[in-house]
Amino acid sequence: MMKKAKHIPLYVIAILILLFTGLPFFIMLNTSFKDQGEFSSAPWALPQNFSLDNYTALFETNFFQYFGNSLFVSVISVVLVIIFSAMASYPLSRMKFKLNRPLLLLFMVGMMIPIHTTLIPIFLLTQNLGLYDTLWGLIGPYIAFALPISVVIYTQFMSDLPKELEESAKIDGCGHFQLFWRILFPLLVPATSTVAIYNFIHIWNEFIFALVLTNSDEAATLPIGLREFYGEFSVNIPGLMAALSMASIPLLLVYFVAQEKIIKGLAAGSVKG
């Protein structure tokens, strides 16, 4: 009984944190079921007339086109980041050469660069390559800025794998390609989950590059498309809340399914002193 009593403060703190973090989402969801008039008169009250009009109205906008664009860019970027960062981490963690440590430090320096300082050169480069106002023009910068932290996470995970696996595979005649894809990569599920989840969330919510590198509805992603709910003199807040509720579904699924892997992966991917 005493042991259970000791955990009561922890449960109280956990409930308070849940209320603190869950309240904004509840307000967003609650507002999405109101019309503009009811929101203006009673913004904090529960909806008197429960309505799905704000959600059905999304079909009359380009919301699902923006949703599809974001999904396409996020998935393609994350898949390529996983492939490139995992392959780059293999020589950094399993091979010994003079530039091993400097290259890893170079990736770590890349994590410190403010990405917004690169907007102008990336904009010019995208234009020169003919990729301006295309989804592929977004994928390149997203991959580039996701690589540093992904390489660090993979490198730390791969360094912790036992050397005996590599030695046994080489005795059996495995080359570097087979060793990496058949032996090491399947063991990196926690690292792969962490890299995928972390970068998917970041890319899904990214705004500034999507704003600068696109100019049409056909190439706009979800953060850009949400501006459709802003009028010249007013904002359709219930409609915007409905769109945000729909847009948050992939992120909530990611957190609920694999939140433990995010924490474990980031902890294991940190640099040891």
Automatic annotation (TrEMBL):
Pfam family, any one: BPD_transp_1
GO-annotated cellular components: plasma membrane
Classification via InterPro entries: MetI-like (IPR000515), MetI-like_sf (IPR035906)
Record-annotated membrane-spanning stretches: 7-29, 71-92, 104-124, 136-158, 179-201, 237-258
Membrane topology classification: Multi-pass membrane protein
One GO biological process term: transmembrane transport
Entry protein name: Raffinose/stachyose/melibiose transport system permease protein
Organism encoding this protein: Salibacterium halotolerans
